[in-house]
């Protein structure tokens, strides 16, 4: 291994990456550092010209091809970031490129490759499927195959990131956290760090549903997964490389797995510190770092996470925003059973108190009791249990749904439906100011004879919360109800005659 380290150290020191890549900044994450009680640094590979580290390895490989090989052209397989690196490099070197990408590749990435002049071929549902097809094209069209990770020149190109980290931070470093797909990035980074400063821990991070490298290291041989998760498309690799497996097994000190929710939370963490939006693979290092710090109870240590990509589809942000609070354990989700009687809804709100409500869904179902879905902002999992205890003390049966995927992914958006007990119901859309006490002000001014039969609210992060309320108001109270609405001071619109309400909720 010492001979291997000397070889890779020489390769990395002589890597040709800076014709196209930049020395990315190593930035201190002030908010993360304060929250984790450690010194957190982010190696900002998301700031490369193609918003990913992949440019380094691709160009280092292609710049070493002969003029005859460049004239024939190159082919690669990629979920997106390597493809952009190859296309960018090919434009710089003036050669033809064929890029095979899985059909699951975000459109943002495939469009970016086309914009760089790459000929995109969509094939298969994972990187491994695209890889096999790319090899067939290489043989049939006499193209040079540029591997995304299992090639010494590609590995050496990625290793320049480790070289920059040690040059940029010459003080003690406890651990460096690196996302793993096929293993090219961690192989290069670990090779340089272990050759120069072997006391630094190198920790690999994989998704729980795409952990081919971790399984391979544990088994002592390369394991091929039957399937991989696609949330982090940049690391969705079924079969790691031979060389990357050899290097990772020998050089990487530890591993940690993360799930989608924790990665969503890490994307939010990165945004709060940098105002940049990482893709899932790009935030895995942060997610793994947070988990590792908690598991090992690290304090006052210097840790580095490589933010390796920012090719995020805009449409994914909706999912990321909704799951980030759960991943950070900043949201508790409950189903609470309350008696179907006047005042019980207000009593439930009093138990919730000044806690920030993220979601509130309720629809009258029968005359005895009602089931309310409540989301509350929390500081950690312990607070969720404390809230559940408070609800129990007040006579409200509740179930903590923080680990219930059915509830988080589907049921929370499906609560409600028709009711056969909603006579005299008036339906209104309100805009409440997003501040504590707004809902209690509404309930306190409402006549005690009026019953809330429907309530739906979700925190959208805006200054005003959009709330749908159904209130049962007897016909002889309609004038008083109109006075209540006008004196409340909240913007609203009546929807009682809306056909959608009539078709699905009434």
From TrEMBL:
Q: In which pathway does it act?
A: Amino-acid biosynthesis; L-isoleucine biosynthesis; 2-oxobutanoate from L-threonine: step 1/1
What InterPro entries has UniProt attached to this entry? Answer: ACT-like_dom_sf, Ser/Thr_Dehydratase, Ser/Thr_deHydtase_PyrdxlP-BS, TD_ACT-like, TD_ACT-like_sf, Thr_deHydtase_biosynth, TrpB-like_PALP, TrpB-like_PALP_sf
Q: Which reaction does it catalyse?
A: L-threonine = 2-oxobutanoate + NH4(+)
UniProt superkingdom: Bacteria
Question: Pfam families in the record, alphabetically?
Answer: PALP, Thr_dehydrat_C
**Is Membrane among the key words of this record?**
no
The record's EC number reads 4.3.1.19
Q: Its Gene Ontology molecular function terms? A: threonine deaminase activity
Q: Which UniProt keywords apply?
A: Amino-acid biosynthesis, Branched-chain amino acid biosynthesis, Isoleucine biosynthesis, Lyase, Pyridoxal phosphate, Repeat
At the top of the EC hierarchy, this enzyme's class is: lyase
CDD domains reported for this sequence: ACT_ThrD-I_1, ACT_ThrD-I_2, Thr-dehyd
What are the required cofactors?
pyridoxal 5'-phosphate
- Boundaries of every ACT-like domain copy: 332-403, 426-497
Q: Which family does it belong to?
A: Belongs to the serine/threonine dehydratase family.
Described by its record, this protein's role is as follows: Catalyzes the anaerobic formation of alpha-ketobutyrate and ammonia from threonine in a two-step reaction. The first step involved a dehydration of threonine and a production of enamine intermediates (aminocrotonate), which tautomerizes to its imine form (iminobutyrate). Both intermediates are unstable and short-lived. The second step is the nonenzymatic hydrolysis of the enamine/imine intermediates to form 2-ketobutyrate and free ammonia. In the low water environment of the cell, the second step is accelerated by RidA.
Which NCBIfam families does the record cross-reference, listed alphabetically? ilvA_2Cterm, PRK09224.1, PRK12483.1
Q: How does it assemble?
A: Homotetramer.
Q: What is this protein called?
A: L-threonine dehydratase
Which lineage ranks, top first, belong to the organism behind this chain? Bacteria, Pseudomonadati, Planctomycetota, Planctomycetia, Pirellulales
The gene from which this protein is expressed is ilvA
């Amino acid at each position: 291994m010492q001979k291997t380290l000397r070889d890779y150290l020489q390769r990395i020191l002589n890597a040709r990456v800076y014709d196209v890549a930049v020395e990315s900044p190593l930035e201190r994450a002030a908010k993360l550092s304060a929250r984790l009680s450690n010194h957190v640094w982010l190696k900002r590979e998301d700031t490369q010209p193609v918003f990913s580290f992949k440019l380094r390895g691709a160009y280092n490989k292609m710049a070493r091809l002969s003029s005859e090989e460049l004239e024939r052209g190159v082919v690669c397989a990629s979920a997106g970031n390597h493809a952009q690196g190859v296309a960018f490099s090919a434009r710089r070197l003036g050669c033809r490129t064929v890029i095979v990408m899985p059909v699951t590749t975000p459109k943002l990435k495939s469009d970016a490759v086309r914009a760089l002049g790459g000929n995109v071929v969509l094939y298969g549902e994972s990187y491994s499927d695209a890889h096999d097809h790319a090899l067939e094209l290489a043989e049939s069209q006499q193209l040079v195959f540029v591997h995304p990770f299992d090639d010494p020149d590609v590995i050496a190109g990625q290793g320049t990131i480790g070289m920059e980290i040690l040059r940029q931070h010459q003080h003690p470093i406890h651990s460096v956290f690196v996302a793993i797909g096929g293993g090219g990035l961690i192989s290069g980074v670990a090779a340089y760090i272990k050759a120069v400063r072997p006391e630094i821990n190198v920790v690999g991070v994989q998704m729980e549903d795409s952990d081919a490298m971790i399984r391979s290291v544990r088994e002592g041989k390369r394991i091929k997964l039957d399937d991989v998760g696609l949330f982090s498309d940049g690391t969705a690799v079924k079969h790691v490389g031979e060389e990357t497996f050899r290097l990772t097994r020998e050089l990487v000190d530890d591993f940690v797995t993360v799930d989608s929710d924790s990665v969503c939370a890490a994307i939010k963490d990165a945004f709060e510190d940098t105002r940049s939006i990482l893709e899932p693979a790009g935030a895995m290092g942060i997610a793994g770092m947070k988990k590792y710090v908690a598991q090992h109870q690290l304090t006052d240590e210097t840790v580095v996470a490589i933010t390796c990509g920012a090719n995020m589809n805009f449409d994914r942000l909706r999912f990321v925003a909704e799951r980030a609070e759960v991943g950070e354990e900043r949201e508790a989700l409950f189903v609470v059973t309350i008696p179907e009687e006047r005042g019980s809804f207000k009593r439930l709100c009093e138990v919730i108190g000044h806690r920030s409500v993220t979601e509130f869904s309720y629809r009258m179902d029968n005359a005895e009791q009602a089931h309310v879905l409540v989301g509350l902002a929390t500081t950690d999992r312990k607070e969720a249990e404390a809230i559940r205890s408070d609800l129990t003390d007040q006579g409200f049966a509740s179930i903590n749904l923080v680990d219930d995927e059915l509830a988080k992914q589907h049921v929370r958006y499906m609560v409600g439906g028709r009711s056969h007990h909603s006579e005299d119901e008036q339906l209104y859309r309100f805009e409440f100011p997003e501040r504590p006490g707004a809902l209690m002000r509404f309930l306190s001014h409402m006549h005690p004879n009026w019953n809330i039969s429907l309530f739906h609210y979700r925190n959208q992060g805006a200054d005003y919360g959009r709330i749908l309320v159904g209130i049962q108001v007897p016909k002889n109270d309609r004038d008083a109800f109109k006075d209540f609405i006008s004196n409340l001071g909240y913007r609203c619109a009546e929807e009682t005659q809306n056909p959608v309400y009539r078709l699905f909720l009434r």
